[in-house]
Task: structure prediction
Amino acid sequence: MGSEIWLGLFSGIAFGFVIQRVGATNPHKMARAHLMIAGDIPKFMLMAVILSAIGLLGLETAGVANTRVLPTSLVATGVAGVLFGIGWGFCGYCPGTTWAAAGEGRMDAVFALIGGLAGAAVFAHLHGYLVPLLYDPFNVGQITLADWTGSRPAAVVLLVFIFGLCIGAIHFLWKEKNGSQVP
Amino acid sequence: MDKKNISPLYWPWLPAAFALAGIIVFIFATFGPPASSSGFVSTMKGALQTVAPNYVENMTHYAMMPDTGSWLFAFVLGMAIGGFAAGRTGTIPVRDVPEIWEKRFGNSRIKRFAATFAGGFIILFASRLAGGCTLGLFISGSTQLAVSGLYFGVLIFAVAMVTARLVYGRIGKEE
Result:
């Protein structure tokens, strides 16, 4: 147990440091990203996935990757995605950024964190009712892009292509207006 | 890179993405898929265990998650420490009420805190239903080429963009 905790702590510190420095813990910046005014945060997220997918392919080739693919439930994952989008667009925080932003000293993030603990507790209480209702009947399994492309490297190429297109689209469609730049 | 977006306060997105990907790959090598919404469950499990051990034992959602003595909890705690260290050593201004929110809804802290409490509640409720959040499902999932992560990712970005437009309305257009 010991080394696992230190690894988690170290990974978290590094992760929290980077997302603060790029501005992902700033809900003002997040709102501007959602309003298609500033594209750096979504570009950062998509590029991180591209690079991680390539890196993970390397780890898999070397045989040192620990993977666990979450199943797709058409209804539960879909309903959750819509609810999550409403909460994210409304408050500008996602679960990970609340911890880093609370550490940074943003009091609104502390309340988002407390709200999150309450939300997790309420879901945990309703798990026995909601999961058989929304998740299990529509669970299509641990499907990945590799199931369609036939091989993992081909799927990584496809992912890099799609995410690259998204970054390009953000670059051209997200525009700073009136030259207003508030930090 | 968009020149107008370069601000000395923030790291540019491309090198930051390399840094984050390095950390994510390190996590895949030393632990497994990184996740942060699970850390909320671990926190609640650790807290509730001390006051209502029987309740925690009988709840599936707590049974499937480790308590606070785990990588998952150490990771979210680490994120708070990392955010603190980055905030203290950097020059990014910290506010309790974001500028854009203040323009739209005024500078009331109570109103903003109530809003983020509600927002935090919704995003965690939703994450636990899906099995992960922006990190645990979208980033970790897409990195593993999982359809669940891509499906969730498309929805959260699309719905958040519509929601932000509804919330900020005209203010958003003037920004």
